[in-house]
Amino acid sequence: MSGIIGSSNFGRASAMIAAAAAGDNTPFILVTKSSSQGVTRGGWSKVTWDTETVDSDGAFASDKFTVPANEGGRYHIHVRFNINSNGGSTKIGMYKNGSHVYSSSNESNDNTVETNWIVNLAATDYIETYSYAGEPSPSVQTDSFFSAWKIIE
Question: Of all residues in the chain, what percent are helix, strand and coil, respectively (each to 5)?
Fold first, then answer.
């Protein structure tokens, strides 16, 4: 298969994310920003997301992904922040149930920082994204995203 797959192809019953006789990779979310968000220099700032491209199980609110009841297991979390040109070195912080548990950085002053994280989550656990920027006037841009999906095991 080639080409672009529209978000309507990723519902719970979609063959695009189903595995033979093993279940499917839901819940699955993909969220983005419709406008840039200023973040604090030299401190952690919560990044909010306001555009749901996909939310297969209604597991996302503007600031966090919450594992639905009966959906505990291993999850793949993928986050990318694109930072404005004076954003400098940036870190992505992953918070689980309100506590900082993982971070990734781009210490090279690149305008993009991206991370992939495999984590065990129980029902009702939640994940939030934070940014730590080292330069003046940083902001997370609109082409940033946050995605998460359950891994079939």
Answer: 5, 50, 45
Residue type, position 32, single letter = T
Pairwise CA distance, residues 45 & 130, whole Å? 5
Contact criterion met (CB below 8 Å) for 34 and 42: no
Average pLDDT over residues 9-37: 70
Q: Tell me: pLDDT of 14 over 80.
A: no
* Reported pTM: 0.80
Q: Give the Cα separation of 125 and 133 in Å (integer).
A: 26
Q: Angle at Cα 101 formed by Cα 119 and Cα 76, nearest 5°?
A: 25
Burial-class residue 80 by CB neighbours within 10 Å (0-12, 13-18, 19+): middle
